[in-house]
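stage 2 :: seqdesign
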């Protein structure tokens, strides 16, 4: 699977494309509400040709929001107590959200494999959200995510084509 994009150039590419993406949003706000099926097709097409193991950007830079259930599941998989896992890997941030103590994620390997892949947090499983219902509600958040994730970048680019 070839990924044609230079990941390091992604923030610059996304910043450059942002005015066009915003223009598209302003002109097509209403239309976007009925475009989930089309956007999900784009998501699947682009995800299929993207190798996350060559990227790992989200695991290096974004702090996913963690739930109690995530901690319980991770603790079980590591055969540790939830309180122990909490102390080792997580903290409550200034907004009151539970997040990893530090990024890159402590479970990310040098080969970009996730050490707890089967039991990774829900937010990790759902990223980059380009296949979620009512995508129009997160269109603007996705413009931000396009600086990190080549899948989001490509979905937004294909949308405006
Ligand atoms: S738990 Fe796994 S998928 Fe989630 S950020 Fe860490 S390495 Fe990435
Ligand atoms: S940023 Fe996007 S392409 Fe990169 S690893 Fe995460 S989901 Fe995959």
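stage 2 :: out
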């Amino acid at each position: 699977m070839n990924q044609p994009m230079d990941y390091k150039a992604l923030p610059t590419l996304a910043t450059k494309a942002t005015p066009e993406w915003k223009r598209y949003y302003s002109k097509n706000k209403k239309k976007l509400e009925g475009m989930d099926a089309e956007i999900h097709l784009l998501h699947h097409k682009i995800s299929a040709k993207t190798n996350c193991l060559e990227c790992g950007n989200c695991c290096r830079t974004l702090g996913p929001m963690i739930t109690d259930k995530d901690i319980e599941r991770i603790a079980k998989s590591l055969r540790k107590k939830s309180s122990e896992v909490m102390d080792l890997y997580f903290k409550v941030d200034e907004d009151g959200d539970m997040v990893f103590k530090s990024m890159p994620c402590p479970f990310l390997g040098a080969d970009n494999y996730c050490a707890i892949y089967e039991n990774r947090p829900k937010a990790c499983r759902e990223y980059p959200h380009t296949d979620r219902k009512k995508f129009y509600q997160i269109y603007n958040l996705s413009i931000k995510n396009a600086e990190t994730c080549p899948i989001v970048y490509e979905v937004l680019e294909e949308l405006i084509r």
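stage 3 :: structure notes
- Residues 59, 64, 105, 107-108, 114, 116, 120-121, 124 surround iron/sulfur cluster (ligand 1) (CB under 6 Å).
- The longest strand covers residues 90-92.
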